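User: Hi! I have a protein structure encoded as tokens and I'd like to know what sequence might fold into it. I'm fairly new to this, so please keep things simple.
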């Protein structure tokens, strides 16, 4: 692929870019955008239905309709200014123009690429633009990897649509904790204050590390004097930290569950903290995300009565072939997708001393307080005093995440779980997943918390499989 061209450029957009992000029309600053006629045809073909793709196709069409309102036909060929929408309502924001294909453009494609296929028609249009205007930097923008490969073969500069990427590299994702250096106390302990409130220990610190901390970030110092704390507030160069509660101890279990490692202990501290309204847990399979979240939810719902019920939902994307439509109510349809919920509930409710009647009574109690809901019916709802668990959140887009999280009413806690290494949604990657998006955007809020779980706790077989397979 060629080096990125300099100066003003002309971007030819593939249909999948607009179906992924309709606001892409306003994301290219001073550069111009060109839409082949086949792109409009594909948007029209995909506009029906209630899926995210259909909604985005309709929104892209609405944006273009708004921009063309009041524009004379003669100006369409000269380009429609891209400052006609609220996304670019400031004269300080540079903007280009939107061009539509208004004539048939001939370009000689290899005979193995018939012009009837939509992708190849777009390639032919980009190639014709490049040949007609050799002084202009033409770039094809597509989310389709094969499309970009074919463009490179034909000598067309192509790029992925990266504007929705939260991070350049997933390794830069906020982890939710920091390891302290061995000389931490020497640098930060000179003007330290400490006090206790209601059995909780607090410290006020200042020093070079403080400016890099976030609210509710965990800090840990290993060694002989192991120290673990959470940042409560950062104020004028000072940080107030609180030592974490030790959930490793059997006397401090949560619904019978104890933390098996440091990160799990940090997760339980966040999940059990009523001042933290939004929690994200990221980790590989077997790190305990669902088990810890459910244990904390049951404890606060049934024992402490902080929440009226637990609502669990997830995106329904199959790993293998789709098994088709499922009969029954909303909850019955969601049951096959909630195997993780059932498996973890079995762990949380089993006891050697319980009789069959006691187990049945427990299951009946839990079924009344734990509801399984589909993402498809979340729009427009408001949840009051609920403990909401969004499982497999890595498969949601940033827009879907916003739709779900904004359903939370007063007294509601939202917990997002996921493994960003296992994304099944087309065009989503580790760097633009909705889970990555919320982790990055919520890290500075004083009522949110995040932790990356590192160690699997299932079995030696599962741990070995994660390493070698």
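Assistant: Happy to help. Inverse folding works backwards from shape to sequence: for each of the 469 positions I chose a residue that suits the local structure. Here it is:
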């Amino acid at each position: 692929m060629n080096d990125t061209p300099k100066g003003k450029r002309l971007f030819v957009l593939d249909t999948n870019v607009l179906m992924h992000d309709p606001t892409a029309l306003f994301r290219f600053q001073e550069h111009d955008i060109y839409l082949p006629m086949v792109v409009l045809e594909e948007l029209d073909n995909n506009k029906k239905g209630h899926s995210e793709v259909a909604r985005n196709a309709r929104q892209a069409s609405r944006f273009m309709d708004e921009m063309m309102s009041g524009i004379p036909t003669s100006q369409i060929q000269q380009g429609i200014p891209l400052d006609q929408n609220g996304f670019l309502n400031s004269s300080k924001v540079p903007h280009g123009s939107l061009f539509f294909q208004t004539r048939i453009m001939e370009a000689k494609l290899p005979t193995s690429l018939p012009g009837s296929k939509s992708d190849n028609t777009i390639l032919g249009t980009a190639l014709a633009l490049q040949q007609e205007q050799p002084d202009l930097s033409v770039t094809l923008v597509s989310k389709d990897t094969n499309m970009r490969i074919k463009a490179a073969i034909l000598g067309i500069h192509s790029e992925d649509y990266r504007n929705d990427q939260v991070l350049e590299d997933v390794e830069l994702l906020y982890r939710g904790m920091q390891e302290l250096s061995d000389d931490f106390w020497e640098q930060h302990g000179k003007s330290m204050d400490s006090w206790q409130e209601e059995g909780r220990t607090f410290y006020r610190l200042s020093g070079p590390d403080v400016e890099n901390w976030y609210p509710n970030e965990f800090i840990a110092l290993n060694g002989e004097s192991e120290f673990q704390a959470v940042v409560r507030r950062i104020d004028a160069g000072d940080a107030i930290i609180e030592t974490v509660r030790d959930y490793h101890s059997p006397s401090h279990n949560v619904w019978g569950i104890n933390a098996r490692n440091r990160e799990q202990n940090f997760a339980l501290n966040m999940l059990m903290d009523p001042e933290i309204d939004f929690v994200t847990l990221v980790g590989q399979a077997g790190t305990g995300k669902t088990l810890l979240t459910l244990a904390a939810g049951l404890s606060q719902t049934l024992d402490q009565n902080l929440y009226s019920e637990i609502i669990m939902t997830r995106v329904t994307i199959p790993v293998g072939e789709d098994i088709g439509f499922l009969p029954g109510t909303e909850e019955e349809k969601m049951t096959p997708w909630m195997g993780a919920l059932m498996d973890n509930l079995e762990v949380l409710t089993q006891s050697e001393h319980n009789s069959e009647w006691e187990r049945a009574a427990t299951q009946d109690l839990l079924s009344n307080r734990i509801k399984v809901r589909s993402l498809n019916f979340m729009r427009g709802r408001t949840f009051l005093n609920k403990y909401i668990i969004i499982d497999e959140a890595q498969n949601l887009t940033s827009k879907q995440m916003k739709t779900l999280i904004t359903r939370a009413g007063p007294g509601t806690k939202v917990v997002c779980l996921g493994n960003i290494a296992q994304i099944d949604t087309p065009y989503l990657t580790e760097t633009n997943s909705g889970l990555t998006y919320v982790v990055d955007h919520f890290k500075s809020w004083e009522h949110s918390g995040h932790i990356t779980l590192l160690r699997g706790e299932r079995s030696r077989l599962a741990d070995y499989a994660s390493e070698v397979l």
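A useful reference point when you look it over: The chain has three domains: 9-159, 171-243, 262-468. Feel free to ask if any position seems puzzling.
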